[in-house]
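Chain A, query sequence.
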Amino acid sequence: MKLRQLTLLLIAFPLAMTAGCKKETPKAPEPVAVVQQQPTGPVKCGKVVETINGDGYTFVQLDTGMEKLWAAAAEFPVRVGETVTVPEGTPMTNYHCKPLNRDFETVLFVDSITVGTPAQAAAPAQK
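Chain A, predicted structure.
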């Protein structure tokens, strides 16, 4: 009798475990579009007249020929006299940088500043 109950249990248990399961085909992941952002607004291009690194940022004062302005982005190598291109960004007025102990009338904070003109930045690298 016990052998019969054990046999029924061994057969019934696996059947009970799989009774509620459905066999589903896994869905393929949806394609992901990769979008490279280009500057969407007006860009400023000019010569660097002053540069300062501090607090993880590079601050550059550039002369566009029409105006002088300050811009800041994550630290990057740049020298006075080089031409840079600054995309549209977020202006901060009366900005005080504590690590530099310096006040800026207005600083344009941007994602990145490109060394070179917009045409140079868009040109493919020469090998």
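The two ends are 85 Å apart (CA to CA). Residues 31 and 97 are 43 Å apart (CA to CA).
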